[in-house]
From TrEMBL:
Gene3D superfamilies: B-lactam Antibiotic, Isopenicillin N Synthase, Chain
Subcellular locations according to the entry: Cytoplasm; Nucleus
Organism: Eutrema salsugineum (Saltwater cress)
Protein family: Belongs to the iron/ascorbate-dependent oxidoreductase family.
Function: Involved in the regulation of shoot development and salicylic acid (SA) homeostasis.
Main localization category: cytoplasm
Transmembrane among keywords: no
Boundaries of every Fe2OG dioxygenase domain copy: 206-305
A single GO molecular function term of this UniProt record: metal ion binding
Name of the protein in question: Fe2OG dioxygenase domain-containing protein
Region (Disordered): 27-47
GO biological process terms on file: cellular response to hypoxia
Amino acid sequence: MEETEQSLLAESFTSAMTLNNSGVPQVPDRYVLPPSQRPALGSSTSTRETTLPVIDLSLLHQPLLRSRAIHEINMACKEFGFFQVINHGIPSSVVKDALDAATQFFDLPVEEKMLLVSANVHEPVRYGTSINHSTDRVHYWRDFIKHYSHPLPKWIDMWPSNPPCYKDKVGKYAEATHVLHRQLIEAISESLGLERSYLQEETEEGSQVMAVNCYPACPEPELALGMPPHSDFGSLTILLQSSQGLQIMDCNKNWVCVPYIEGALIVQLGDQVEVMSNGIYKSVIHRVTVNKDVKRLSFASLHSLPLHKKISPATELLNESNTASYGEFSFKDFLDYISSNDFIQQRFIDTLKKSSS
């Protein structure tokens, strides 16, 4: 049965990279968004100037300045659910090597990449295009390889063997982002008034999914998106981008372009932090635009509590006048939801919200 599904998927599968390489002058109909969902590229609404927070993480390691960084994180999480970090401790050589390995992977012949294709969102290593090629009503202009990455020795042997440098170079970046995630979760817990170690055990035992994305140049970027509006399910997403393309939704529901800053990494709050904070912090809604001339690569390091571990609002943040606004959920609950629901139509976190009446 599984082999039949795999062969059917292979027959219907055309990746965004393949379309780009074939020189299509227009995006195929299946990628064309309804007019209301198209990005307003070049209009004043799509280039709205908002100062987005950039935080120097070296301050966290200076006892006299740590409180300043914690305050900046608190403000960024409350206002945007998003910030960029500099002096984050990941060497530029590790970042460059990871991007090089990703470039080589996506440049492989399509037959090679198809060995890893799957429509099963539970697969620990999965190559694909769009969001889920089999079920998407509208397709998205991206190719991806996703793989579980923590603990690294458990998963790395399943990763692509081609290009030969992939496991080593991407593995070093995955380990470095895991360390950074631990520091960030401590700071975010502290910024909420919780113990720094509030999620320490869950972070160490938690999952890390590395989504390596390729957004090829697109002939009609005003009609398509690389990724639709969504929030991430986990605790934090640490994002590396090779060029601009990410947009976040601000509190006024305007789309704001996230600038590309050389050497910076992007931190996005996920649904688990929104639930843990009982809505004090919100997960950020974001999307990805595509470009007519530039291929964009990104590494989204998606960090989550362990697969079956439930997260609920922190009891330390609740009292008689501030009761729990969300039900509990686990990473597995999220995977089960997206297996059988269109998460574009309804965000998973909206199914957890309790009515205030």
